[in-house]
Amino acid sequence: MNDDLAALSARIDRTNELLKRMLAEVAKTPSTHAIFVDAGYLYAAAGRLVAGTEDRRAFDLDAEGLIDALIDRARTIFADSRLLRVYWYDGARRRIHTAEQQSIAELPDVKVRLGNLNANNQQKGVDSLIRTDLESLARHRAISDAALLGGDEDLVSAVEAAQGYGARVHLWGIEAPDARNQAEALLWEVDSQRTLDLEFFKPYVSRRTAPAYDPDQTARPTRENVRFVGAQIAAKWLAARGRESLAELLPGHPYLPGSVDQDLLVEAEGILQYSLRGQADLRRALRDGFWEHLQTRF
User: Fold this and answer.
1) How far apart (Å, rounded) are the C-alpha atoms in residues 246 and 78?
2) Beta-carbon contacts of residue 137 (< 8 Å; ≥ 6 apart)
3) Residues near 51 by beta carbon (within 8 Å), at least 6 away in sequence
4) What is d(CA 71, CA 34) in angstroms, rounded to the nearest whole number?
5) Tens digit of pLDDT for each residue in 16-67?
6) Which residue intervals of 55-151 are DSSP H helices?
7) Assessment of whether the complete model's pTM goes beyond 0.70
8) Residue 25 CA: distances (Å) to CA of 16, 21, 183, 247
């Protein structure tokens, strides 16, 4: 009997020793966090807060500086944790990334995920991308904490999925000048809430000033001149984006994605020093020159 008790006691001691070792190893393993940014919410809420508009074309966003600021903020909140990466979710027509989205994707520790944009410039599929990443990272114990910058009620399922695997989800919001810009159902589900205020965003958002072109001082360019400028810009676009992006763009001919068309217009006006707004024939010549150059290179 005594021998049995002694053996049982020895087994208990060995089990306790193994548990101590396991806990010591767990203690050595740093916690990991990731930042999830719904860019649609970010542009709309930060644009309204700082520039007074949700129209992306009306203001500039220093994405690199802002991402660094978000990383720094997370570092102070999750003091004993390491950053996995920043996930940046945005929309693009036919999922063809814009020049701005490409530059963000090239930043260190940043992963860009693209959903679609419909005819009304509304994001489609972004919430499901966030849910997939949150759930997968939590399930594989890749993160212990998730900082989610967003406000859509559709994100509730993403939060619940991550929490189901033991991750904590912390909702970050953007100060609203009038009404709340985050769904109540989302606020109820998360583990904590923080609001980033006007002072946080001021250094990274600036309203664009429309170029001042004096029609009395600048001669109206010919269609051929504008067509040539379109070809010039296409050459630069192709050099920066590559043939893969060109292959994705060509099926949309003769139409350009809204973001590409807007960038084309702004750059052409800068080269010509002439406003093409309201000049339908010159706008067509510009697009023709752009497409003609790209088609000769495919």
Assistant:
1) 42
2) 34, 84, 143, 146, 162, 167
3) 58, 59, 205, 206, 207
4) 9
5) 776 666 555 544 557 999 999 999 999 999 999 999 988 887 888 999 999 9
6) 63-77, 99-105, 126-139
7) no
8) 14, 6, 40, 50
